[in-house]
Specification:
Two copies of one chain form a homodimer.
Chain A (H helix, E strand, L loop, with lengths): L1 E5 L3 H14 L5 E5 L2 H11 L3 E4 L8 H11 L4 E6 L4 H10 L6 E5 L4 H12 L5 E2 L1 H11 L7 H12 L3 H8 L3 H15 L16 H11 L5 H16 L2
Parallel strand pairs in A: 1-2, 1-3, 3-4, 4-5, 5-6
Helix pairs in contact in A: 1-5, 2-3, 3-4, 4-6, 7-9, 7-10, 7-11, 8-9, 9-10
Chain A binds a DNA duplex (30 and 30 nucleotides) through α9.
DNA sequence: GTAGATGATGCGGGATCCTGCAGGACGCGC
DNA sequence: GCGCGTCCTGCAGGATCCCGCATCATCTAC
């Protein structure tokens, strides 16, 4: 077995290296990449079907890297090992995992035991292992209760990018009014009204801008999600 | 000498511990805190005047923690040890460092040598040590050329928080028109117009929302800056 | 088949935002 | 004093945004 480690922090990388060797005695080679782009290349060259991947790397996002790896080899098994369980990350990951692929999501705060267990479960048994905390996120994300539907998330991203209502309508093939409808939904769910009107007609928020900030603070959006959305937007803009 | 380490990542914490012991043989005790709040408390209890601090911690931001520590003992020497040199961080740090205080800013990507040198320079020699890369940021931040003045940064934060023009005017003691003037300045500097009008009257951006996103992507703003701004805003709102 | 729920769309109005134009206040240098 | 630059302010107008009201299509349930 060959395992590829994609992690930009040297300390974490060597820790992972040891953990992999300890948990998987049948693993004969461990390759290390220190950026997302390097990870993509090494995965291609070595045809390694077992990857441990950090999200949030400087050079290239873990999600981006995973997407291209999975695009080339959908049966690759990837264990995401991340500091955070931001809903933005969780949603980003579950959007790119191919049907039937074995993958995992373990937090860096997990114990050695749990990490090793996850390594064996995914790489040997081909099972999916999702951290409890992350799992909670996923429920909230996919389930309706208190969570955000895909359309709501979509429009959240669009206003976060700074598109006008008209531009969103064109992009999503909707009428202007529908876009505004969805915006209203979003504002309600994000609870932007509560703080909006203070007492009389005083100190109000700009709903659109406020929604983005609230989403950020709630980790519904984060830098990496913005980055991805921005590049998707650029692509769409090119296609007129 | 007593050194306090504030860092939430266990691997990085133990690495720092070793580095401190190696660089400072005269250091008899090393204390560790794994969150900003714990760091504040330990600094108070142990009266430790030498701190190594991570920015970007989950529980409490490094900048917040440093601010309260410095508020209680302005002669404390703090070395910030961070993964990033986001302008938002650099600006946040330089806003809170007291007059004449010795401090440092070293990136985690720096070599062992450089870290140890910085430790000695700051804790023994009371000199300021700023990483080259961070220094560049600082120049850009404080200098006018291509950088953002304080007033521009202020209004950027305000619209990022989602305030209306009127609310900003009240908060900053300006007229409505002045707020809008500053917004125009901001839009120009952030280059929001370039992509705004595509060809005819087509696909435009909402300038206000777009400005925030562009600032995010340029690391002028980040999560931690938003967090701080949000709590400042809450305070201001309480004072009617 | 009728009723109800959900979602897309159109119309219209009031509030906000963005900006051009013009004028006033302040400081700086000659 | 005078000119110049920078910053703040008011006014006006057009574009955009936010939202209530109403219609229509689809789908589900009974």
């Amino acid at each position: 077995m060959k395992v590829l480690i994609v992690e930009d922090d040297p300390l974490h990388r060597s820790y992972l290296h040891e953990a992999v060797c300890a948990a998987l005695p049948e693993c004969e080679t461990v390759i290390e990449a220190e950026s997302g782009t390097a990870g993509e290349k090494l995965a291609r060259d070595h045809r390694s079907a077992h990857v441990v991947m950090d999200l949030q790397m400087n050079n290239r996002n873990g999600i981006e890297a995973a997407r291209t790896i999975w695009k080339e080899r959908p049966d690759t098994r990837i264990l995401f090992w991340s500091n955070y369980s931001d809903e933005a990350y969780v949603r980003g990951v579950s959007r790119i995992v191919p049907d039937g692929a074995a993958y995992g999501y373990v937090l860096k705060s997990a114990s050695d035991e749990r990490l090793k267990l996850a390594l064996r479960s995914i790489f040997v048994e081909a099972q999916c292992v999702i951290d409890r905390e992350v799992r909670g996120m996923q429920q909230k994300s996919l389930g309706q209760t208190k969570g955000f539907s895909d359309t709501e998330y979509e429009i959240l991203v669009d206003i976060a990018l700074g598109l006008t209502d008209r531009a969103i309508a064109r992009r999503r093939n909707l009428s202007l009014r529908s876009v505004q409808n969805r915006l209203q939904q979003l504002y309600e769910k994000l609870d932007v009204y509560q703080t909006a009107s203070d007492d009389h007609d005083d100190s109000r928020f700009n709903l659109r801008a406020r929604a983005v900030t609230v989403a950020m603070l709630r980790k519904l959006l984060n830098y990496s999600a913005l980055e991805r959305a921005e590049s998707e937007l650029a692509e769409w803009l090119k296609s007129l």
